[in-house]
Specification:
59 residues, coiled coil, 0% strand
Length: 59
């Protein structure tokens, strides 16, 4: 890491960057995806299903 250009961000700065990153429009391209990308997408879908199942179970 380049110490001369590094900056220690405050918690507020980090939260702002995270919020801005979540607002970015990200598209998934199957043509550009590699095996790890496809595996991550599959795990994400399974996690969403489990989370929805837990939410519905509580209601």
């Amino acid at each position: 890491m380049d110490r001369e250009n590094s900056k220690i961000f405050s918690k507020t700065d980090k939260q702002k960057m995270l919020y801005e990153a979540k607002l970015e429009d990200v598209e998934f391209s199957a043509a550009e995806a590699d095996h790890d990308d496809l595996e991550a997408q599959e795990r994400s879908l399974e996690a969403d299903k489990r989370q929805l199942h837990e939410i519905l179970k509580k209601k």
